Amino acid sequence: FNLDTLVGKQLIADVTERLDQPGQLVITLRNDDGRYATDLTAGIYSAIRRNSQVSVRLGYTVSGTDLVSFYQPFWVTRLAHDRRKSGSRLVINAVDGWGVLERTQTPQFYTYANKTIIQLLTELLSGIGFSVTEDGNTAWDTVVTTFSINPGHTFAAAVRRLLDLAGGHLLFRIDATNEAHWPSAIAYLYMINTASTYTFGAAHQIASGLYATVAPLATHAIVLGTGARGDAYDWPSIENNNNYAVDIYVERRLVTNAT
């Protein structure tokens, strides 16, 4: 369903996005009149169900003109009816394409030989329902001699490994002209252009902000290869914050120890 169809229904939408990480959408709908009954399997709200695709466009208004981004797809994972004395509401939780990749595990061992990065990414992403496009950068045509995925690993982990090899990124969007058809969700592979395309000045003041520092996910990184091993330490975090956390990465193609 499209959020545009719910305008005027006392809607609150909270979107969280992170580069190459799972994003989420939380939609809160007033339900004092019971329009979103427990049984939503029929009627005008029948599309509000788990696994439904939700279309979101973020934007703002400048001089009376709406400026909006491309449609972003999310998929409903949870419906919660919250009933209190102060009122009733329906809370809808949804994840983006990266969230789908994190939730999807490989059922068996896969191995590929002499395929390009774009061929591997297309096979993985199209296999779970995404149409794949890319920006034309030649890095996507890099040949990978051997690529393996162990059973139980997430698709997200496999996709990130391939993105690292190309130096690129992945976002999910919707072809609005083909939204009613499957697959309408597009996995777009791209490289970040470091050149500045817009200059923000005093006319674009930040209304509010939250700035924080967090502990690193790992302070001891271990890389294991075939007869090879490399270690790296974040000594300041270990010594000053008493924070010791290990992260291990296995890459069988590495055969030389780090120096």
Q: Report the biggest beta sheet as strand number plus sense, adding barrel if it closes.
A: 5 strands, antiparallel
| Low-confidence residue ranges | none
Distance between the termini: 54 Å
Secondary structure tally, helices: 4
Work out the strand percent.
Answer: 35-45%
Shape: globular
Supply the helix-strand structural class.
Answer: mainly beta
Strand order of the largest sheet: 1-2-7-6-3
Average pLDDT figure: 84
Radius of gyration: 22 Å
Binned, the helix content reads 10-25%
Order of helices and strands: EEEEEEEHEHEEHEEEEHE
Written overview of the protein:
14% of the residues lie in helices and 37% in strands. It has four helices and 15 strands. A hairpin with a 4-residue loop joins strand 13 (220-224) and strand 14. Helix 2 (117-126) runs antiparallel to helix 3 (155-166). It is globular, with a radius of gyration of 22 Å.
Please render the helix and strand layout as text.
Elements: E1 11-18, E2 21-30, E3 53-56, E4 59-62, E5 65-68, E6 72-84, E7 87-95, H1 97-103, E8 110-116, H2 117-126, E9 131-134, E10 143-149, H3 155-166, E11 169-174, E12 185-190, E13 220-224, E14 229-233, H4 235-241, E15 246-250
Parallel strand pairs: 9-12, 13-15
Antiparallel strand pairs: 1-2, 2-7, 3-6, 4-5, 6-7, 8-10, 11-12, 13-14
Helix pairs in contact: 1-3, 2-3
